[in-house]
Specification:
The protein is mostly helical. The protein has 2 domains: 84 residues, Rna Polymerase Sigma Factor, Chain: A, CATH 1.10.1740; 74 residues, Arc Repressor Mutant, subunit A (Orthogonal Bundle). Helices cover 70% and strands 0% of the residues. The chain is built from 9 helices and no strands.
């Protein structure tokens, strides 16, 4: 099996997409839909209808543009990049401020939230993440919440590895400084 393609997503499925096979698209949607939806939400799009619309637009673009995919092993990174562009376009179109409202809550269990001191700490951390510059926040969330490696983030955001590392370092320094205040 080629590196970059998960078990269950074969070259045959990708070739099926290129041939216009809707069953292949459905298989990719079933396999990756939730992951891509989670990624869309990391762009601070928490309205479920809007997030679903962007997810559907992403899969329509995947279906229509699959012939542009040159390296089948980079399918998932390519799909994430399409989702990222759809999110950025949505945010620009609506002229909204990027706000992180809830992503961190997914990582914290109910017992943590039940204690008032810990709730206050969560609130401060959440506030600090919201204050991050947009490009640093994007890298931070992809790395910390989605567990992506810097190389993958670099591919998705179409920037150099050095830029990703710089943005992550800037985000960490910002958060440390914010939390010390």
């Amino acid at each position: 099996m080629s590196k970059g393609i998960k078990p269950g997503i074969s070259h045959d499925i990708i070739n099926g997409l290129k041939a216009g096979d809707l069953n292949a698209l459905e298989k990719v949607y079933v396999e990756y839909g939730e992951k891509i939806l989670s990624y869309i939400r990391s762009y601070f799009i928490y309205d479920p209808y809007t997030a679903e619309d962007i997810l559907h637009e992403t899969f329509i673009t995947i279906y229509k543009s699959i012939t542009a995919l040159k390296d089948k092993t980079k399918f998932l990174s390519w799909a994430y990049a399409i989702a990222a562009n759809k999110c950025k376009n949505y945010i620009k179109k609506r002229n909204r401020t990027i706000v992180n409202t809830g992503l961190a809550e997914q990582k914290i269990d109910d017992s943590f939230q039940a204690q008032s001191e810990e709730k206050e700490l969560f609130s401060i951390i959440h506030e600090a993440i919201e204050e991050l510059p947009a490009k640093c926040k994007e890298v931070y969330i992809l790395h910390e919440y989605h567990g992506m490696k810097y190389n993958k983030i670099s591919n998705i955001l179409k920037c150099s590895l050095r830029t990703v590392k710089y943005r992550m370092e800037k985000a960490m320094n910002f958060l440390l400084k914010y939390l010390k205040e």
